[in-house]
Structures are given as C-alpha cells and as structure tokens.
Write a structure and sequence with these properties.
This protein is mainly alpha-helical. It is built from 11 helices and no strands. The protein has 2 domains: about 90 residues, Cytochrome c-like domain (Cytochrome Bc1 Complex, Chain D, domain 2, Orthogonal Bundle), CATH 1.10.760.10; about 80 residues, Orthogonal Bundle (Cytochrome Bc1 Complex, Chain D, domain 2). Helix 4 crosses helix 6 and helix 8 crosses helix 11. The N and C termini lie far apart (about 55 Å). About 25% of the residues are buried.
Length: about 200
Amino acid sequence: MRYRFFYSIIISYLLFFGSNAHSADLENGKELFKFCTLCHGKVGQGVIGGDFPKIGGLPEYYIADQIERFVKEKRFNPAMVTIGRLETMTKKEKEDLAAYIASIDIQEAAPTLTIPTFIGDAKKGKKLYKGDCKTCHGNKAQGKAKKNAPPTAWQYSEYLLRQIDFFKNKDRHHDNDPEDETFDDYTKEEIIDILTFISTLDD
C-alpha cells in the first residue's frame, strides 16, 4: 500500500511537469526574440569576435537558467537585460522565449554558418579536453543537462576565450561555483589548444 502511494505521487509529478514542459508558446517566444536579434542575429547565430555568442539551438535548460542569472545580476549585462526587455517579462514569457531559442535549428536556419578553426594545436587540445572538460560538457562538447552544462561545440572560440578569462578573474563563476579553480592551472596556450579542438567539432 505504501509503495502504491509513492508510485501515485511519482506519476502525478511526471504528469504535471511533463504537461508543463510542452506548454510553451513558441509563436510568442518568436515575437519576444525580436528584441534579442539586434545583437544575437535573426536566428540567434551570433557574431564572430567574441561579443555576441551563438544562442540559437542552445538547450532550453541552459537558456532559462542564464535569463534568470542576467535578470538577477548574477551575470552582469544591464544593456542586454534592458534591450532584450528581460526585466519586464513575466515568468511565462521567459519560458516561451527560452523554448523558442532552443527550438531553432541553426544548421537549417543558417546553413552557411561555420565556426572558424581556432589558432592553436587541436591534437594537444583534444587530450586536455578529454582530461578535464568532457565530464560536464560531453565527449563531443554537446553539453549535459544533468550537469546544467551548455554545449561548447558550435560556439565562437573568441567568445569562449572571453568567458574563460571571466572565470579566471572571478567576474563569472564557472559551474556556478565561486570556489571553482578549473582554469587556474592552465596556461593561455593550453586554453587556446582546448578551444581549437572544440572549434573542429562542427566540421
């Protein structure tokens, strides 16, 4: 009897969250995304150079988390929050926006988009990546939901390098952990090698 009770609780939980997972209004999300296109591009393809990352097709779990971090100033970019109108969005609108961004098939929407191979040694970078990065970001840098880790494949190398500099300077917390020291022992050359390997994963 006790097991039947817990079983019914689990089923109710799955039904509730399962139905909510499919309740996002993608058309509304697409309309809200228009405020993001000024910087991130029409289909979220971003800009080469490091300032504006590719966000089209990033996982919904990651987009939703980052929206909240920007709004709550755990990541600091007041211009983006204002221009993107994130500060005035309701919870449902943020969910719609995150779902729409995640739904973008970037290869179909921007078929000519490529990530230029970075300037380091991909072979050395692969060895370093397999040693430290793949546990959270995946064997092919595809990201892992259970780690709340985003994909890094198909992201501009200059943008990733800039974020790593933020992590090293504690301007942003890697793995959402203020005490994280993942990058402290890497040389600049080794980080560039890692990013070079990642930049080959879209080939």
